[in-house]
Write a structure and sequence with these properties.
57% helix; alpha/beta; globular; Glycerol-3-phosphate (1)-acyltransferase; eight-stranded mixed sheet; 8 strands
Length: 384
Amino acid sequence: MDLSKIKSSPITHTLFVLKFIVSGLIANTLEGLLCLLLWPFNKELFRHIHFFLSQIISLDFVFLLEWWSCTDIYFYVDKKDYDKYYGKENGIIVLNHFYEIDWLTMWCISDRVGIMGNCKAFAKKSLMYIPIIGWSWWFSEYLFLSRDLVKDKQTIEVNLKKLFEYQNPIWLLLYAEGTRFTPEKHEASMKFARSKGFPELKHHLLPRTKGFSLGLPNIRHNLPAVYNFQVAYKGDLKPSMFNLLNSQKLEVHVYMERISIEQIPKEVKDCDNWMNNLFVKKDKLMDSFIKTGDWFKESGVEPLEKFKSKRKYSSLVNFIFWAVVVLVPLAKLLCNFMIFGKFIFLGVLLFIFCGLYMIFKWWISVSEIKASSSEDGKLKNKSK
């Protein structure tokens, strides 16, 4: 039996989407009920329960990377720091935004260190209205921004402080570049950098530092460290959702560095400079990796230990459980329609399946187009 053909089949993809929609809507319903019943009286209890509920949705994507495509992830990290701190303390994770699925790699990392249910992020305000994922992010207390510093100031200063008062550790993901890298955005970003005397970068956009610098004073007392994560992929295969669904195996390499909060300046201007210098370092790492396949060969950065991170079974168990809950009753229903000759109902179901598949294909194509063409004008307008 050729499993690769089964995994790349439109029928398999449609069933996967159907399972995701049903399990996701069930999770959203439970999140909504618990929010109404628990949030007004016991926020911490709601957060403890939601830690697991949110993973019903996010682990589906982790499953695609870890078990469906069998992608390998390699960490480059100080092993003592990794064992002592990772997943055990509050942290802001500063990431590059070069690839279509770098966010998914970050979800896998957070799952492997046991903090996925408390992994938060800054996100565009419009994303909170997207069914299933956006709704779950809202219940997870993601920080939704309108990309207007005046409007976002309260979210950054007040809500960020509340987030870091969790009883359990959280990770806040920060894509300081603000949007995914494309040649057009890079050209506009570097033009702006030259006009302001900022360092020019080869593989990153100029980081947007104000949100980080304004928010940091409000959470320093609850923030032991900032983490510098740099994600890259080896090989000619494009790291995309489409290739993951077709079970195309990737090879991910992640540079991971813990930076104590004491090393980060307190003054806003100095903090801005610190972030810009961090991206110079990230750029040197990326340049070395692209040229040599090694983070350290030409970057001048001190080498770190490399090890292959082991997959966790949580995403596999989650997928199997919900596949049984959703797809077994569906299979029985289809068999009954065929046995009793209810072909009209069977046709309606098949029509729904085809619709789901077309929507899914459209979503994948839009996601890939955005990687190269979306929001090109936004950065130019910001620069002006």
